[in-house]
Write a structure and sequence with these properties.
Blueprint lengths: L4 E5 L9 H14 L2 E10 L6 H7 L1 H30 L2 E10 L3 H9 L4 E6 L4 H13 L4 E5 L4 H4 L4 E5 L4 H9 L1 H4 L4 E8 L11 H9 L4 E7 L5 H12 L3 E5 L2 E4 L2 E4 L1 H8 L5 E4 L1
Parallel strand pairs: 1-2, 1-4, 2-3, 4-5, 6-7, 6-9, 7-8, 9-12
Antiparallel strand pairs: 5-12, 10-11
Helix pairs in contact: 1-3, 2-3, 4-5, 10-11
Length: about 280
């Protein structure tokens, strides 16, 4: 059981994905036994003809300069990816697309639908990358792996410990199933259930998940933690800091309304400030 077909989104604008982030993604692909495709999207910034704006602030020239930045990041990102992935034996292909700046998240999500797993490193201020992660999570029908640069070393070498956040929901079940290729490789798996945070969260809720993983050869233990009035995101963050897993697996919660995603607290926390690499499914 493995991820064969992996996709890496190499961001190009406004904050390009760093060589270190690409190196981590390549190491993850090697550890998972899959082949990796590098995707770049060259940003287009359309400017309506406005002679006054061009005269006063050089609007067209500013747009062309920003597009040039994105093209340069595309070339540099792909060059580094090709070299690193080839050396690691995980190179599959490259994809180079163009899109309006605001359409990049939808473009990446549409392409991600035909890959086993999308890898999305988080660098810089995260705003644009978080929008891409949102879109891939809720629109691709495939799992997504997000991480800060420097967080994924353990995942690339093991992993030693994987935590599955379990609340018995459809999204949690999907995430656990999507994560099986990693779970079977982990030295230790812990199933986390948080009590007194949702009405249906009862003791022993994690036993069904533990039994299912056992059938797949994964020996897991169940941890029940009392929320004690704290929000789920706070409980998860505290648990992660204590146990220091190489990966957190969780379901993504939210829905689309007028193209805006209203995320559940734990999902938003995981995307905006992942405490460790996080694999999300919806």
């Amino acid at each position: 059981m493995t991820y064969i077909d992996l996709l890496l989104h190499i961001d190009t604008y406004p904050t390009p994905t760093t060589p270190a982030a690409i190196d981590e993604a390549v190491a993850i692909a090697a550890a998972l036994g899959g082949k990796l495709t590098g995707l770049v999207v060259e940003v287009e910034i359309p400017v309506r003809s406005n002679r006054l704006a061009d005269y006063l602030i050089g609007l067209s020239a500013m747009a062309e300069s920003e597009e040039s930045r994105s093209r340069k990041a595309c070339r540099e990102g792909l060059d580094h990816f090709i070299k690193t992935a080839a050396e690691a034996g995980v190179f599959q292909a490259t994809l180079s697309k163009k899109a309006n700046h605001y359409d990049v998240p939808d473009k990446v999500a549409a392409l991600a639908r035909t890959y086993d797993l999308s890898i999305l490193p988080m660098v810089g201020g995260f705003d644009g990358q978080m929008e891409v992660a949102d879109s891939v999570l809720f629109n691709s029908g495939r799992p997504v792996l997000v991480y800060h640069v420097g967080q994924a070393r353990g995942l690339a070498h093991g992993p030693d410990l994987v935590v599955v956040a379990w609340d018995g929901s459809r999204s949690a079940a999907r995430a656990m199933a999507d994560a099986l290729p990693i779970l079977v490789r982990a030295k230790q798996v812990r199933i986390l259930t948080v009590l007194n945070e949702k009405p249906h969260m009862a003791p022993n809720l994690g036993e069904g998940a533990r039994r299912h993983l056992q059938m797949h050869g994964v020996s897991a233990v169940v941890d029940e933690v009392d929320a004690a009035g704290d929000k789920i995101g706070v409980v998860l963050e505290r648990y992660i800091k204590t146990h220091k897993p190489d990966l957190l697996v969780m379901g993504g919660y939210g829905h689309s309304r007028a193209r805006e995603f209203l995320l559940g607290g734990a999902t938003e926390q995981a995307l905006r400030a992942p405490p460790c690499p996080v694999l999300l499914s919806h």
